[in-house]
Amino acid sequence: MASIQLKFQAAAEVNGKEQDGLLLLSDQEQQRQLVITCSRKILKEITERKSNDINNDDIAKILWEMIHWQTSLELSVRINTLEDGIYKALLINEENQFSLPINADTAILLSIVSHNEIPIFMDAALFRRQSSVYQPNAKGLQLPLNILSEPMLHNLLDNAVKTEHYEIASELRDELKKREEEDKKRSQEDKDQAENVQ
Q1: Sorting pLDDT into bands at 50, 70 and 90, what band is 8?
Q2: If you count Cβ atoms within 10 Å of the first and of the last residue's Cβ in the chain, which end, N or C, has fewer?
Q3: Are the CB atoms for 65 and 74 separated by under 8 Å?
Q4: Which alpha helices (H) appear in the chain, and where do they start and end?
Q5: pLDDT tens-digit series, residues 51-86
Q6: Distance of CA 98 to the CA centre of its chain
Q7: Is the pTM of this model over 0.85?
């Protein structure tokens, strides 16, 4: 499976939102960019680490250094899917290929804690589908609707209706309906599978 190595570029708060943030990554050549939503907690951690606001007794930093001193462990992160607006990844032990499922925002934080010794990769097809042209000096970001959480979509929908942006509201409503249909389909498949097992 082809993959593309990514590098972290920036972290930002979503305007007017206290709980969500955005992480901007690019390919190594800085031709294309990818935006990943993150929790407020992850945003705070990344922002502090990137501004060197972390002191010498930071437990994550200490643990990474201890692992690094004691082992030759080589890890990588592979962002491999997008489910319900959340990028999912695998933390992979390169020696034995054992993997641990992890959210992509957490994986990016782990890479930053390791001083980028844990590289971040993404499935090439997923990257092509979700990325846009890299714009380092842009004032805003292009966000595909499928990366937004349902609460964020509902909030944006309410805002679009209040401000009479009906075309945007229609797109947001369509995305919410699409997810609802996918959830029903998954639920039915799970139910059918459970019945077949019995």
Answers
A1: very high
A2: C
A3: no
A4: 40-50, 59-70, 104-113, 124-130, 150-162, 166-197
A5: 876 666 677 778 888 887 778 889 999 999 988 788
A6: 21
A7: no
